[in-house]
Each structure stands twice: as C-alpha cells, then as structure tokens.
Amino acid sequence: MTDAPPRRIGLPWYSREDYPRIRTMMTDRHNLASTYEMWLASAENNETVGQQAGLRIERILIEPAAFAKWCAEQGLEPDGKARTTYVAEMCARMTA
User: pTM to 2 decimals?
Assistant: First the structure.
C-alpha cells in the first residue's frame, strides 16, 4: 500500500455562456457535443468515473479569448490536442 497522493488530472471545463463560442472556434467542433447540456452530462460522467478510479480531477475552465491567445502563442490550431495540452499545462501550474 502506498501513501502517494492521488494522481491529479485536468478536465476541460466550459461555462454555459462560452460553450457556443468554444464550439465555433474549434477546428474539431464535430468532436464536441452539439449542446452545452449534452457536453455537461458527459463531462460530469467523466469526472465521476475518474474520481471513482481514485484520480483527483481538476476542472480547468477554458475561456475562449484566453485559449485563443494561448493557441496563437503556441502556434497551435484550437482543437482537441491543443485543449489537452492547455488543460495539462494549467493543471500543472496549479501544483507549482
């Protein structure tokens, strides 16, 4: 048995108000739920599954303007890969 803290992972999170803009700006919008309600149900399920697996889940809010600026600075398209990288970076900053 180990006393190591639970592994922390970030989960992309969106506000209801920002979700339409998030979907519009993403190059892979087809991979995102068509409505906020559908996205939220899936995200909450993923969060619960992760917690049940012993993970420490951190909701990382993706705001359209900040994410667009970060993508431009990184030279990345706003897509799933960029979302994953952004969330991991923001989560790591929380522990620093």
Answer: 0.88
